[in-house]
# Entry
Amino acid sequence: IFKYIVAAAVVLGSFVLGFLSLGSTAAKGVEALGRNPAASRIIHLGIIFNVGIVVVIVSAGLIVAFLILRL
# Structure
């Protein structure tokens, strides 16, 4: 049962870390768009890059949890 608890903690931790990171970054991106609409392309690329990082964090958490359960 210890494996399941650790795997659940890893998945939960990766989701929390990913979405906290996304939330703060998205809020700052929207604020930056309001301050400088001329730089919208760069700001959009930054937001997309950060969403990609969140996907990687959550995917890594799921893979690690899967490996914990398999071993």
Q: What stands out?
A: The mean pLDDT is 92. The CA atoms of residues 23 and 29 lie 10 Å apart.
